[in-house]
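Here is the promised in-class demo. Please do not try to memorize the tokens; focus on the logic of going from shape to residues.
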């Protein structure tokens, strides 16, 4: 992999820097960021370096803010408790777009095993990982570094394992041996939790509990396992560039290292890891159909010097079509009025997904393209 001058340091002659070639060399290695670390690099390759500092002067913790924590323990017990939870979800989605979920029903032991399964995938022999390396996004199971590698100004310091688990899941033998069983088990639990959240979110919008599910918002499920190795220059690159999610909702499992931040009231706020908790955030499609009642918050992941940081995101959203009929999303009619007219146009979900894929994580909001 020729990303240096031969001694592990970046090439010094800036005049001969060929970014396109460097990207291609990195991609062709099929080894990802972990491959660079395993090769013993001591300096950050230029393809990962932001032209200006990636971080604000104060990018650390803001102790006066912490994202809401919602306890689902009593969700099925008494009406008053359920109503209280729904109100907390409404406030969190309206003001933050993020919340931490505890007592959600998924055993902590399974969460730990899911993190370990993603670790095992990324730390297995590179020859086994290469079997899954592709930029063909129609594939159900993939491994790569930076889905938008050739589009962004600076590559992010992470590798990613992805698999579409619904509506057309891969055959079990298509999944990697090292994490097959736990991915299948986690899918069953997180799907059940996702349906519960769709009901609560519907009620938080004042709708029938089945409304969002009936819009096919939970039909597509994508699991993404990120691996962020320790970085030699964490202030000069990002783990994940600031962005919003393109799904309806995201359920995120993160390890204890930290680094996830959301942009709230004009500052970055750390999402502190809580063992056994899951992070839930609103995606662009829910902001669109809720007509801005719920917000899809900008967030990012800092590179770190300790690593590896591991996270598992499950994205719930509609497929592009069902039975060859395109799915169209627009503001929910029941949420509109003369005082609250539609902010967004009706759009084909396929058009939205294509835009997201074409622009990558460029830091600009996807929804701005669909305003009335």
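The designed amino acids, position by position:
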């Amino acid at each position: 992999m020729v990303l240096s001058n031969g001694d592990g340091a970046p090439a010094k002659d800036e005049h001969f820097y060929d970014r396109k070639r460097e990207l291609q060399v990195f991609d062709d290695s099929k080894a990802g960021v972990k491959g660079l670390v395993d090769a013993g690099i001591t300096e950050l390759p230029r393809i990962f370096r932001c032209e200006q500092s990636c971080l604000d002067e104060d990018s650390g913790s803001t102790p006066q803010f912490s994202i809401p924590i919602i306890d689902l323990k009593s969700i099925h017990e008494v009406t008053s408790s359920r109503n209280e939870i729904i109100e907390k979800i409404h406030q969190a989605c309206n003001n933050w777009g993020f919340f931490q979920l505890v007592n959600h029903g998924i055993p902590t032991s399974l969460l730990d095993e899911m993190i370990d399964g993603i670790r095992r995938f990324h730390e297995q022999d590179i020859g086994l990982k290469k079997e899954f390396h592709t930029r063909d996004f129609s594939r159900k199971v993939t491994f790569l570094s930076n889905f938008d590698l050739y589009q962004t100004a600076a590559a992010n310091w992470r590798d990613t394992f992805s698999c579409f688990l619904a509506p057309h899941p891969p055959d079990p033998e298509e999944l990697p041996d090292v994490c097959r069983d736990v991915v299948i088990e986690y899918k069953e639990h997180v799907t059940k939790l996702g349906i519960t959240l769709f009901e609560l979110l519907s009620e938080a919008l004042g709708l029938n509990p089945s409304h969002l599910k009936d819009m096919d918002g939970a039909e597509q499920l994508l699991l993404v396992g990120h691996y962020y190795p320790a970085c030699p220059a964490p202030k000069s690159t990002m783990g994940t560039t600031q962005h919003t999610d393109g799904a309806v909702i995201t359920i995120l499992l993160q390890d204890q290292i930290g680094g996830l931040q959301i942009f709230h009231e004009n500052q970055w706020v750390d999402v502190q890891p809580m063992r056994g908790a899951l992070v839930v955030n609103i995606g662009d499609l829910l902001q669109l159909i809720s007509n801005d009642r719920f917000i899809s918050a900008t967030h990012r992941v800092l590179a770190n010097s300790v690593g590896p940081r591991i996270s598992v995101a499950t994205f719930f959203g509609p497929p592009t079509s069902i039975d060859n009929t395109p799915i169209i999303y627009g503001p929910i009619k029941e949420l509109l009025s003369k005082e609250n007219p539609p902010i967004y146009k009706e759009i084909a979900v396929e058009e939205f997904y294509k835009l997201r894929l074409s622009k990558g994580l460029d830091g600009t909001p996807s929804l701005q393209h669909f305003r009335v």
